[in-house]
Amino acid sequence: MVKNTDLGILIAKKNYSESSLILTFYTELNGLSSFIFKGARKKKLAIFHLGIYELTFFKRAESELGIINAMDLALPLSEIYSNPQKTILCFFIADVLKQTLKVEGGDALIFKFLREKICLLDVKTDLYTFPLEFLTGLIVNLGYLPHFEEANASYFDLQKGVFTAIESPYSYFVDEQTAEQLKTYFEGYYEQTFEKETTKKSLQLLIDYYQIHIPNFRIDVSLGIIKDTLYSFA
């Protein structure tokens, strides 16, 4: 077997044996990749969700699982793992990624986006809008950017992915501020301030949009936790 190296963002881990783990990463070169890390549980290593690691591994062409030889943190993130709210957001984001990044093969733009957002989360102080910022950016990178047919659209057709003035069976009424927030966030501008209630509406509408376009997208548990901790609404 040939030794390989890659950068990976940890999105899932589970026990494989009494001493080993199966780790799933989104990697820079190979996209979604899973590995056995032998002895990881006995070594009691600090392995964090959304940690960005330098990986050295072996992988047979016929095997779905690689074998990690060594892994080291590539970036010294600290706030993410010491701030309880940021840790909860890490689990939420990892849950989203497990359900959206299902195709093998590297995508440099998605990896760059994830790396930048993780680094932003580490230093960001106001976390209220971060879930919305992340989800709008991710859905754009996945190729599901909605279109705005009219400047003053009153409905969001979730099936067609269109903000429009025409009501349809799959459309939801959106007030002016919610439409404006979603539009600016989809365009990558986050400086404008919106009411917290508007952010709540925007987030729920966006999750409904994900559920239509991403097969089997269900984040009820992790979403409920961030609602309780960041938003305190049911």
Written overview of the protein:
The protein has 234 residues and is an alpha+beta fold. It has two domains: 71 residues, OB fold (Dihydrolipoamide Acetyltransferase, E2P), CATH 2.40.50.140; 153 residues, de novo design (two linked rop proteins) (Up-down Bundle), CATH 1.20.1440.120. Helix content is 40%, strand content 23%. The protein is built from eight helices and nine strands. It has a five-stranded mixed beta barrel. Strand 7 and strand 8 form a beta hairpin. Helix 4 packs antiparallel against helix 5, helix 5 runs parallel beside helix 7 and helix 6 crosses helix 7. The longest helix is centred in the C-terminal third of the chain and has 18 residues. The N and C termini lie far apart (51 Å). The model has no long low-confidence stretch (mean pLDDT 90).
Write down the overall geometry. elongated
Overall average pLDDT? 90
- CA(first)-CA(last) distance: 51 Å
SSE run: EEEHEEHHHHEEEEHHH
How many domains, as an integer?
2
Task: Please report which band the strand proportion falls in: under 5%, 5-15%, 15-25%, 25-35%, 35-45% or over 45%.
Answer: 15-25%
Number of helices: 8
Main-sheet strand order equals 1-2-3-5-4
CATH class of the largest domain: Mainly Alpha
Percent of residues in helical segments? 40-55%
Biggest sheet overview:
5 strands, mixed, barrel
From the 3D structure, determine the CATH topology of the largest domain: de novo design (two linked rop proteins)
